[in-house]
Amino acid sequence: MGFARALMLGILAGAFIAFGAMFYTMTVTGAEWGGGPNRLLGGLVFSLVLGLVIIGVAELFTGNCLIVMAWADRKVSTGFLFRNWGIVYFGNFVGAAGAAALVHGSGTLGLGEGAVQATAAAIAQGKVSLPFMEAFVRGILCNILVCLAVWLSYAAHHVAVFVALGFEHSVANMYFIPVAMLAGVDGVTMSGFFANLIPVTLGNIVGGGVFVAIVFWVIYLRPAREKKAG
What number of CA atoms fall less than 13 Å from residue 196's CA on the CB side? Predict the structure, then answer.
């Protein structure tokens, strides 16, 4: 895929994830059913996002961790793997952060007499306060579920599970944290943003690239390759 096309599709995916994040924020604002039911509802709402990404053929970094399967099968080089990840990750950031700026400028966070902004602030504060290892492990668990959803194509409801369980999705955090930074939320800083984004991104790579892509490669593609070679 050419640079411009990959970048544009990455921007689209970032914006789609941001829309889902905003929808999630709006949905759980004022919900009073308790932690479990609130998270379930928010997860079901957020699950619509993966449908947008797949139907729109957009390029999402976390889903593209599955390219590790093609890399392990020697269909793509290491250089092409990291090239795709770099372009798409940057595009996802542009789309998600750009959507955060638009939401901030729209005044949407002021709905409900500021209740939506309070929810957005609580989400971002919780994310930037995560210890490195906890954010890393949550990133692994998140992308196991995301990549399973992409792998199974029509099982996009799996993405609802990572939201409900409080796992960490790097591209979603590219919206959740910047939108709170723009609103001037206490404790949500650029350093806190990167302190969350780095371990979550690494966790997403391990979760999707190792626990899904490599596992399925070992189960399905490696035996086929060995049989063909034999």
Answer: 26
**Residue 158 to residues 132, 140, 142, 225: CA-CA distances in angstroms?**
25, 15, 10, 30
pTM for this prediction: 0.88
**Which residue bears the tokens 């609103």?**
183
- Count of domains observed in the chain: 1
Q: What angle do CA 5, 157, 141 make, to 5 degrees?
A: 80
Query: How far is Cα 216 from Cα 31, in angstroms, rounded to an integer?
Result: 39
The residue type of 175 is: Y
Query: Dihedral, CA atoms, 57, 60, 63, 69, nearest 10 degrees?
Result: 80
CATH number at residue 174: 1.20.1080.10
Q: Tell me the per-residue pLDDT of 74-124, one tens digit each, with 9 for 90 and over.
A: 999 999 999 999 999 999 999 999 999 999 999 999 999 999 999 999 999
* Structural domain for 162, as ranges: 3-229
